[in-house]
Amino acid sequence: MARSIKKGPFVDHHLMAKVDKARAGSDKRPIKTWSRRSTIVPEFVGLTIAVHNGKTHMPVYVTENMVGHKLGEFALTRIFKSHSAVGKRTEEAVGHERRAAPGTQGPAAAPAAAPGAAAPAAPAGPAGKK
Within the chain, which residues score under 50 in pLDDT? Predict the structure, then answer.
């Protein structure tokens, strides 16, 4: 449920005091805060706010598009590593060339034709199924 309009957006008082101080002194250093619940208001635009994600302070540069959102939305608390290796697509499934087995000639090991020489003919094989 959203917050009522007559109350206005919630911003912690200590964070608003830090923002006002930074605006007055035109300070470009990040403002460190633990207040993930605070709503981004137009006074924050152009400032860098270091929002705590539970481990470190993540620097968040506030733009106009962020107004109305919460600070915690831009400092992710979980890091997605990857799923397990089971079921991952192999190089052949992705479409990469297969590597030649040791001792055989692969496409990279084919001899280069001399300039002006005719290209070798393709080997004759069965034309079709009977």
Answer: none
